[in-house]
Design a protein that fits this description.
By secondary structure, the chain is α+β, with helices and mostly antiparallel strands. The protein has one domain: Translation Initiation Factor IF3. About 35% of the residues lie in helices and about 40% in strands. The protein has helices at about 30-40, 45-70; strands at about 1-5, 15-25, 75-85, 90-100. A 4-stranded mixed beta sheet has the order 1-3-4-2. A hairpin with a 2-residue loop joins β3 (about 75-85) and β4 (about 90-100). The protein is elongated and about 55 Å long. It starts with a strand and ends with a strand.
């Protein structure tokens, strides 16, 4: 499966199928949440939250690709990511794009 954030793939002609998406809501455990809270007092990277967001993006992308695979798509174009805080220490990540089939 080819994944791109452009609306074209060089050298490929395709027909658009439909929008596909994937999402997840992730949180860290209370112990990590407390240590990350303390980290905000001294500054620096919040590694546990950074890891959480990377895991969330990977899982959301996997779910989007699974949806496109069911449609027998060859690629997903114009991919976009969005995230939002759901509650303290929890975030939603959504990814969406257009599933396409090569001609």
């Amino acid at each position: 499966m080819i994944l791109v954030n452009t609306d074209y793939i060089s050298g490929k002609e395709f027909e658009m199928l439909t929008m596909v998406k994937g999402s997840t809501i992730q949180s860290k455990n209370i112990g990590r949440d407390i240590t990350q809270g303390l980290k905000t007092l001294i500054g620096g990277e919040l590694k546990a939250y950074n890891d959480m967001m990377n895991e969330a993006r990977a899982l959301a992308t996997k779910r989007m690709v699974e949806e496109a695979t069911i449609l027998q798509a060859d690629a997903i174009v114009n991919i976009r990511y969005a995230s939002s805080a759901v509650m303290q220490g929890a975030a939603e990540v959504i990814v969406y794009g257009t599933a396409v089939k090569f001609k």
